[in-house]
Amino acid sequence: MDYQYPISHHWSTDETVDVIRFFQSIEKAHEKGIERNVLMQAYRRFKEIVPGKADEKNICNEFEEASGYSTYKVIQKMKQASSEEKIRL
């Protein structure tokens, strides 16, 4: 990994850790797959920290530019998947 995660100085340490955990879940979905329930939990926590659609889009775009991993595609696949399905791009 040769990039940094997008974080805000407004977040607490716990919030920063949870956002990083969400982006690690996105990486895992691209690289080897992740259980839908695990990804859903990480996404729900991310949305608690970043509730606005515009902020979410900006942060996720920043992550995609740095990493090459699409948050949007993973979340769309997660929303379409059954509860027991493993998410992998």
TrEMBL record:
Pfam families from the UniProt entry: UPF0223
NCBIfam families associated with the record: PRK04387.1
Family: Belongs to the UPF0223 family.
HAMAP family: UPF0223
Species for this entry: Bacillus norwichensis
Organism ancestry: Bacteria, Bacillati, Bacillota, Bacilli, Bacillales
InterPro entries (alphabetical): BH2638-like_sf, UPF0223
Protein name per UniProt: UPF0223 protein H9631_20265
